[in-house]
Amino acid sequence: MPSLKLPILGSSGEGSPQPRTQWRSLDERERGLAPSGEFPPGASEIGGTSRREFVQLLGASMAFAGAAGCLKLPAEQILPYTRQPEEIVPGRPLHYATASTLGGRATGLLATAFEGRPTKIEGNPEHPSSLGATGLFEQASILQLYDPNRAAVLQEKNRPRSWREFLAAQHARANALRTKDGGAGLRFLLEPGSSPLIGELRARIQKLFPNARFRSYTAVSDDEAMRGARLAFGAALETRFDLSKARVIACLEADPLHPWPGSIPAMRGWADKREPGPEMNRLYAVECALSVTGMNADHRLRIRPSRLLPVALALAAKLGSAGGALAAFGRLGAKARLEPGQQRFVDALASDLRRAGRQGVVMVGPRSPALVHALAHAINSSLGSEAVSHQKPVLHDTETGADGLAELAAEIRSGAVDTLVVTAANPLHTAPYELNLATALDAVPNSIYRGLYQDETAQRCAWFIPATHPLEEWGDARAHDGTVTFLQPLVQPLFNGVSEAQVLAAFLGEGDKSPYAQLREYWRATRADAATAWEKWISDGFIRGTASPAESPQVRADAVAAAAQSARFETASPALELNVVPDYRLYDGRFANNVWLQETPDPVTKLTWDNAALMSPATARELGVKTHDAVDLGLRGPPVHAAVLVVPGHADGAVTVSLGYGRRGSEQNAAGVGFDVAPLRRASAPWGGRGLTVTRLGRRHSLAITQEHWSMEGRDPALDMDLSEYQGPGRERIEEGRVPVATMHTPWDYSKVAYKWGMAIDLARCTGCSACMVACQSENNVPVVGKGNVEKSREMHWLRLDRYFSGSEEDPRATAQPMLCVHCETAPCEYVCPVNATVHSDEGLNEMVYNRCIGTRYCSNNCPYKVRRFNFFNYTYNQEDVEKLRNNPDVTVRSRGVMEKCTYCVQRIERARIDSRVQERPIAEKEVQTACQQACPAHAIVFGNLHDPAQEVTKRHGDERHYFVLNDVGTRPRTAYLARVRNPNPELT
Amino acid sequence: MSALFKPWTNTAFRLALFGLAVLFGGGLIAGPMLYVRSPLYTQQQDPIDQPVQFDHRHHVGDEGIDCRYCHTSVEKSSFASVPATSVCLNCHSQVWNKSPKLAPVRESFFSDRPIVWNKVNKLPHFVYFNHSIHVKQGVGCVTCHGRIDQMAQVEKWAPLTMGWCLDCHRNPERFLRPREEVISMTFTPGGEKEQLALGERLKAEYHVATRTSCTTCHR
Amino acid sequence: MAISAAARLEARRALEPLPLLEGEQDDGTINKTLLDYVWRKPGKGWLLLIGLGLAGTGLLTLALVVTIAKGIGMWGNNIPVAWAFGIINFVWWIGIGHAGTLISAILLLFQQKWRTSINRFAEAMTLFAVLQAALFPVLHTGRPWFAIYWLFPYPSTNRIWPQFKSPLMWDVFAVSTYFITSLLFWYLGLIPDLAALRDSSTSRWMRRIYGTLSFGWRGSARHWHHYKIAYLLLAGLATPLVLSVHTIVSYDFAVSVVPGWHETIFPPYFVAGAVFSGFAMVMTLMVPARRFLKLKQVVTARHLEAMCKIMLATSLIVGYGYLMEHFLSWYSGNPYDFYQYANRRGILHGPFKSAAQDPYIPIFWLMVFCNIVVPSIFWSKFGRTNVYVMWVASIFINVGMWCERFVIVVISLHRDFLPSSWGLYKPTWVDLSLLFGTICFFSLLFLLFLKFLPAVAVQEVKEMRHELHKEHERHEIPEFSQEMVHPMELEVGEEEKR
Amino acid sequence: MKRLVLAEFAEPEPLVEAARKLRESGREGLDAYSPYPIHGIDEALQLPRSKVPLVALIAGLAGATGGYVLQWWTNAIDYEINVANRPPHAWPTNIPVTFESGVLVCVLTIFFGSLFYFFGLPRTYHPVFEAEAFRSASLDKFWISAELREGEEPGDLERALRELGAGRVTHVKEED
C-alpha cells in the first residue's frame, strides 16, 4: 500500500507507515508546484473555489499543493484518489487512538480525521488519564498542528540543511567526541519524558557515550515533590490521588480541579462526589491566588506563599496533638504562629480530616516546598488515606527543575560542553534569570535545538530541527499512572518535523530509521506479546494493565519532624511577596502561539491575551493602583512592566504573575502579549520570593477581560448555596427557577417527534476549567477575534464561562457557570428576526441559519442570555490554506455580518440521525454528544433526548436541583442547570 | 409666439414615464427574478468538459454498469464519490487498454496523480446534502441527476435551488420509488396517480420523514 | 365697568394673535418674496454652507464605504450593545421627519391657517430627514447586499419568506410607506409652485426644466377640483401614518424583552418625542432661513410662537413618559426593570451601588436637562418671542432627543439580564462620521432645496392672502393684521355686553 | 384642431361670475385657470363631484387586504415555521403591515391616479400655453378659456368676455 500515508486502525502495521522522508521542501510549497511522485497522494478530492468543498474533499497534504492554484479557478474541481484506501470513505470521518504528552505524561486521545485530515481531538474513554475527557491543552493542540508559524526548515546557523546533512555533520562530531573521552562533551537537555522508547535510546546512547549526560528540564517541575518524597519516604516516589475515595480534601496550593496533565481523573473523582447528601465530599483550599480549585472549595484560606509551610505544620501539629503517628509534630504547633483566623481554619480542617480518617487526604501542589510535601505524606499516612497511593516515578528523571539547568549552565561556562542537544520546550524562556542561559548557549560550540517554533532557544542554537506535532509522530509515553500509551500519527509531518526519538537515534547512527520502525522494533524486543497484540495496542492507544504497581512506603515521621523543627520560618513582615504560577492557558509559554488558548479567558480572572499582576483589592489600595494600571515589578533583578489586575480572594501582601508570556520568538501570535516574568525568578526560588517592589508608571495598559462585572446583582443566574440552605429555604429559590411561567401561547407539541433534545449542566460538578470552551471552538470552527476585539466585547465563544463573585471581596465565593444558548422553546431571538434566519426545528432546537442571516443583530439584543455572537468582521479572511485544513467540514465557516451561536452541535445530531436511519434504528444515548459534553472532565454537561426517561439528561431534568436560568422571563429553555451546593464545615460557619 | 413645448412632447413624456416604469419594474425586479430561474444562472443544460471523455451513455446505457460500481460511497456517505483511477483500470487494464482516449487515466495511475474532474453539481458551502439517506429512502438517481444514460457529457439536470429541494421534502410521495429501483434510469410506476399511490405506500414502509427544518441542510 | 376704551384696546392688543402675514401683500409681492430668490445668484454664505455640506457628505460616503467594505466592526457596536449609533440616528432622524408631516397634514386637517407659511419647509425637512433615516435600516445590517432585497416579500427560488412577526418587518413597511407618502405629498404640493416657477422664469431652459417637473400643470379648475380633495386625502392618510410610523419604531423596542425597552408607554411617548424633536429641528432651520431668505413677512413671530407652544406641550408629554417609566420600574417590582432605571439615574442603593460608576449616567441627566428643563423657558412669553432664545433652545432639544435615543438604545442594552454579559459601548470615528455626515447631507439637501425650489408653498400663501383679504372686507377690519377672530376676543365681547 | 379664446381677470370673483354666465349662455368647452383654487368655480362650471375619494377608498381597502393576505399566506400557509412558539398565523402581529400596505397602495393610487388620470397630466403642451400672457395664470392672474365652435369667429366671444370684466383677451389655435 504505497499510497496510504495514514495509520489506519486494523490495517497491517508494517505497510501503512512509510519511512519519513523530506517529502517536500518549503520553496516547493511556495512555488505551488503540482503534486509530484514523492508526494503522498493519499488524498481524495480537491475542491475549488468554495472553502468547504476544498476542506471537505482534500487530504491534508494534497490540499497543501492544490490550495493556491484551485482557489482562484472559477470552476470547481474534484480530485479523486488514484488508488482508494479501503478504509477511507470520502465524507465519513475516521477516529484514531493517539495521545499527547505534557509534563512528560501522556493523555490518551481519539483524533477525528476527514480524508486524512485531523480536525478534532477527543479523549480516549478507555485511557486512565483521559476517561474520555480532555483539557484545554489537548483540545487546542489541533490548532498547533496547522499553525502556519511552525518552523518548517532544518537550519544550521540560519542556512537550510537537510536531515541527511545534519546526520552527517553530527555523526562525525559525535564519533570524535566518543573516541576522545567517551562523549564527556555531549549533553542532552530533554523535555521530561516517560517514553519507554526514549528510555531505551538514552540507555543505548549512554552505553556508547559513557561520559555523556542527560538532563530534563521543564518550568513546571516536580522537583519539590520528589524532594518531599525523599524526605518522607527515603525514596523518590510519585503520589497518585483517587478523589472518588476522599470525603475531606485539603489542597495546599494544589490545583487538581483544573485539567493539568494527569488531573482529569482527580476532577472526575471529585465531581462524582458532589451530589448533596451524606456522601458529599468537602474541599478545603489553602492558597495565595484564587485558583480553579479555590473557586470550588467549600472553605478557602488565603495566605501569602511563605505562610504555606506554617499552615501545613500547624495542621500536622493539630492532628498530632492527640498522639498517634503524628505525635512528633504535636509540639511544633506553636512554631507556626498562625493568626487566629488561620488557626481556626486549621483546627477545623484537622478535626474534619480526623473524622474522615481513611477518607481524608491532603494534596500539595508542585510549587510548594519539599517540607510541605513531606508533611502531607505524613498526614496522609497517619490518616491511612485510601485516596492516596504511591508509585515509582513515571518520568525518566526525578530532577527536572531549575537546579539541573543551573548545573548545566555551570558546565557550559566551564567549557566542558561541546555538543548540547535540546529538546526541552524552549528552556531559554523559562530559565531562571541569573543563569543567563542565552549567553551560555552561545558558548556551546555545537548546540542543537528541536522545537515546533523558531523560539527564543532556537535563536541561540546552532542547529534548529523542526519538531513533529504529536499528531504527526509515532511514539510512546506513559500515562500519569504509568500505563503505556502510544502516539499514532494521523498525518505526514506538515512542516518536515522530526521526532525526539529520531534526534536521539541520530547519535546512535540510526537517524535514517523511520520512527515507526524504531517504535515497532523496540516493542517487539521488549514485550513477547507484541507480535500478536501490537495492532490492538495501537487501536486501543495503550496497553492495558501496564499501570505502575502501588508501592507501600513507610513515612519517616521523625525525619520530617526533624526537618520541620530545623526549618526556618519567615517571620511576619510587611514585605510584598511574589507568587509565580504556571498559566492556565499557556502553561509555561509553549502554547503562546495558540490563539484559541490566548483568547480563552483565564478561568479565574477572565483575562485574555495577557498576563497580569494579580493582587487583592486591599493590596491594590495600599499600592494605590487599580486594574489596567501599568506598573513595574522588581525583585532582585531588572524591573518587569506589568499591568495590574485586582482579583477578589487574592491573599493580601502578595502579587501573583503567570509564566508563559512576553515571548520573543518568531511566533507571531505570541509577540507582544503579556510580560516575561523571568527577571523575577531565581533558580533557588523559581516560584517567587519576598521583597517585591511595585512601582506605578502612571500609564494605562488595557487588559482584555471578557467579564467585567463580577456581581450577580441580587439575581440568581448561577445558584450556589450551602448544604444547610439547600436542605432548607434554598429549595424555594431553586423551585422559583423552574415554576412554569404563564404564557399566552399554547406550548408547541413535541410529543410526535422522536427526539426532544435537551441539555443539563450540573454546576456542582463544573469547576470552571474552560476545557469545554476550547472544545466548542474546535468543533464549531469558532473564529478568534484578537485582543482589540475582545476589548470591544466581540469575542465569539459560543460557550462562555461566567464567573460570579459573592460575599466579601476578601473571601468571595466564586461561582462558575457555563453559559451557552439554552435553546428556549419560546425563544425571544426568533420572533424579532425579520428574515426567518433563526427559527425552531421540529425537534425544538433553536436553529441559526447563517446563510439566511442579514445581520440585524436584533436577535442578540433580545437574547436575555447574550449568547449570540456576531461576525463584526470577516474573522476567517486571513486564514492561511494550511489553517483551513483544520476546519470541521461539517460546520459552515461563517462569513462577515452574520450571527452565530451554540447549535447543540447539530452537525453531530444530523450525522447520527442519518446513520441511524440508514441502519434503521433509533439514535442511542451517547451517540450524540456535544463537543462541550465530550470534553468535560467532570461530566458537568450532559445532552440527550428528553423523550427518553432512561437518559441521564432526562434524569437531571427531573433532579431536585434543576432550574432554568432566567426562568421568570418565560423563555422555557431546553438547558437545565443543577444548582451548586457547597458542603461547608459547620465548625467554620 | 409659440408654446414652451411642442405637442409631441406630450407623447414623449408619457412614453418616457412608461419606459422608466418598465426599466425599474423589469430591470430591477422581474428581470433578475427570471434570470435566477433560467439555466443561464443555474448552469443547467450545460455539458461540462472533462479531462477524460467518459461517456455515461456507453457505460450506463449500453454496458448497464451499476452506478454504485464507480460511485462507491453513495450508500454510505454524504458523497457519492468520483471513482479512484484504479477503478477505471479494473476494466480498462483489459479492454481498450491502448486507447489514446484513456491515456490520461493510465498516466494518472502510473504517475500516481489524480485526474482532475470538473464538478457538475455544485452546492453552496452552507448546504449539507447526504446521498446515503436519499438512496436509502428510495430516491432514484434519475430523480435528481436526470437521464445520465443519455448524456454524452454529464450536465447539471436539476436547478438545485432550495425551492427545488423543498418540492420533494414537502411531498416526497411524488418521487419515491422502491429501493431496488433506485439506480434504474427508466423506472416508472405508470402515471401520476400510480406514483402517488406507490409513494404513499413507500413513505409508510420506509418510514420516510422528510424534514423542512433549516438544520436538516444548513449547519 | 369703567374700563377705558384705550385700556380695552391695549388689553385686546396683548391678547391679539400676532399676524400671519406682515405688511400689505398682494400676489405680486408674494411672488417676489417667495419665488424671486430662486433666480438670484447664489450668495457667498450659501456657497460656503454648500461646501461644508459637501465635505460632510463626503465624510458620510467614506464612512459608508468603510462600513460596507470592512463590516459593522468598524462601528463601536458589540455584544451586548449590538445596536448603537445606527439605530439611534435612525430613530432620531425619523422622529425629526415627523414634525414635517404633522405640520403639513394634521394642521391642514385642523384647518390651522398658520401652517401655510411653514408647511413646505417642514415637508422638505421630513423628506430629507427620512432619507437620512432610511440609510440606516439597511446599512446597519451585517450584510446589506442581502438585506436590501431579502426584507421584501418576493417569490424567491429558495421559497423562504420574510418573518412578519418581527417589528423590523413592520419597520420596513412603515419606513418605505412613510418615505413614499412624504415624497408624493410634498411633490403634489409642489406641482403648482413648479408651474409658477416655470412661468416666472426668464430663461427658456429653466422654464423647460420646471415645465417638465410640473408635468404641464396649468392650474385649470378641473385640476384644482381633484387636487384639493387629493391633497386633503393625502393629508388625511399621512396623519395616521405618521402616528403609526413612530409607533412601529417604538415597537422595535417595546416588543422586545430587554429591560428599558419592554414598555407599553413607548408608542405615545415616542410619537410625542418625535413631534418634539421635529418641531425643534424646524425651528433650528427656520430661524436662519427666515432671516437669510427674507421670509419674515410670511413666517411671522406668530408662527414661531405657535411652534414654541407645541414644543412645550410635547416636552411635557415626553417628561411624563420619563416619569412613568421610572415610576413603573419601581411599581412593577420587576428586578431587571428596577435596576435598569435606577442605573440610568445613577441613584442606587445597597447591593446596586456598584453601578454608580456607570459612565452613561451624565447622558441621562443631559437628556433630562435638554428635554425637560430647557423647554420650560417657553412658559414665558419672552421665551416664545425671542428668536435667539428659541433657536438656542431648539438646538438643545435636538441634542436632548438624540440623547434620549442613546439612553434607550445603548443604556438599556449594556446592562440587561445576566451581569456576566454586561459591557460598554464606545463610538468609533465611523460612528461619529455617520452622525455628523448625515447632518451635513441633510443640510446639503436642504440648502439645495432652499435654492432651487420654493421654500414656502406659494399657491397656498396666495390662497390664504386672498381669504384673509376677503375676511377683512367682510368684517371691515381695516388693519391687515387683525384678520382672525380670536376666541378670547369673543369672550371679551360678551363680557362687555353683560 | 382646437381653437380657444382666453381671457385674463385680475380677481377671481369676476372670473367665477363670467364663467357662470358663459355656461348659462350655453357655451361649451369652458375652463378656468388660477394660481390657487378659487371659491365657487366648481359650481360655476358645474363640475361633477370628484371620484378621487372613491378610488382612494377602494385602493386602500385592496392594499390592506393584500397586505394581510400576503402575511397570512407566506407565514402560515406556504412555509409554516415554528417561530418562538408563536402561532404561524398570529393576527395581532399582522396589524402594522396591513395598515401600512393599505396606506401605501392608497397613496400611490391617489397620487398617480390624480396625476395621470384625473389631471390628465403629463401634458406639457396645451393650446393655452400658446399665449405668452397665459404665464400669469400660475402667478397672479385668473384666466378663462372657451372653445370656439367649428368655424366660429373669436370676435363675439372676446367681446362678451371683455364685457364680463376681463382684462386681456386673446385667442389661440392648437398646433398639430
Summarize the SSE layout with pairings.
The complex is a heterotetramer of chains A (989), B (219), C (498) and D (176).
Chain A: H1 26-31, H2 51-57, H3 60-70, E1 77-78, E2 93-102, E3 105-114, E4 117-123, H4 136-145, E5 155-156, E6 159-160, H5 163-181, E7 186-190, H6 196-208, E8 213-216, H7 223-233, E9 238-241, E10 248-252, H8 264-271, E11 282-287, H9 292-296, E12 299-302, H10 308-320, H11 333-336, H12 340-356, E13 360-364, H13 370-383, E14 388-391, H14 402-413, E15 419-422, H15 427-430, H16 437-443, E16 446-451, H17 456-459, E17 463-466, E18 475-479, E19 484-487, H18 500-506, H19 515-526, H20 530-540, H21 557-566, E20 577-581, H22 595-599, E21 607-608, E22 613-615, H23 617-623, E23 629-634, E24 640-646, E25 654-658, E26 688-690, E27 693-700, E28 704-705, E29 720-722, H24 723-727, H25 730-736, E30 757-762, H26 771-779, H27 787-791, E31 800-807, E32 812-819, H28 828-831, E33 838-840, E34 846-848, H29 858-861, E35 869-870, H30 881-884, E36 899-900, H31 906-918, H32 931-935, E37 941-945, H33 952-957, E38 962-963, E39 975-978, E40 980-982
Parallel strand pairs in A: 3-18, 7-8, 7-15, 10-11, 10-13, 11-12, 15-16, 16-17, 20-25, 22-24, 29-40, 30-39
Antiparallel strand pairs in A: 2-3, 3-4, 5-6, 5-17, 9-14, 18-19, 20-26, 21-28, 23-24, 23-27, 30-37, 31-32, 33-34, 35-36, 38-39
Helix pairs in contact in A: 4-26, 6-18, 7-13, 10-12, 10-13, 13-21
Chain C: H1 5-15, H2 27-39, H3 44-70, H4 85-109, H5 119-139, H6 144-150, H7 167-200, H8 204-213, H9 221-254, H10 266-292, H11 301-331, H12 335-345, H13 361-373, H14 381-385, H15 387-414, H16 429-452, H17 458-475, H18 487-497
Chain D: E1 3-9, H1 12-24, E2 30-33, H2 41-45, H3 52-78, H4 95-118, E3 142-147, H5 155-163, E4 169-173
Antiparallel strand pairs in D: 1-3, 1-4, 2-3
Share of residues in strands of chain A: 15-25%
- Which oligomeric state applies? heterotetramer
Task: Specify the helix fraction band of chain A.
Answer: 25-40%
SSE series of chain C: HHHHHHHHHHHHHHHHHH
Strand order of the main beta sheet of chain A, please?
6-5-17-16-15-7-8
- Strand count of chain C: 0
Q: Give the domain tally of chain A.
A: 4
**Rounded radius of gyration of chain A (Å):** 28 Å
**Most extensive interface, residues per chain?**
C-D, 64 and 63 residues
> Kindly state the mean pLDDT of chain A as a whole number?
86
Helical residue percent band of chain C: over 70%
N-C termini distance of chain A:
69 Å
Taking Cα atoms only, what radius of gyration of chain C do you get, to the nearest Å? 25 Å
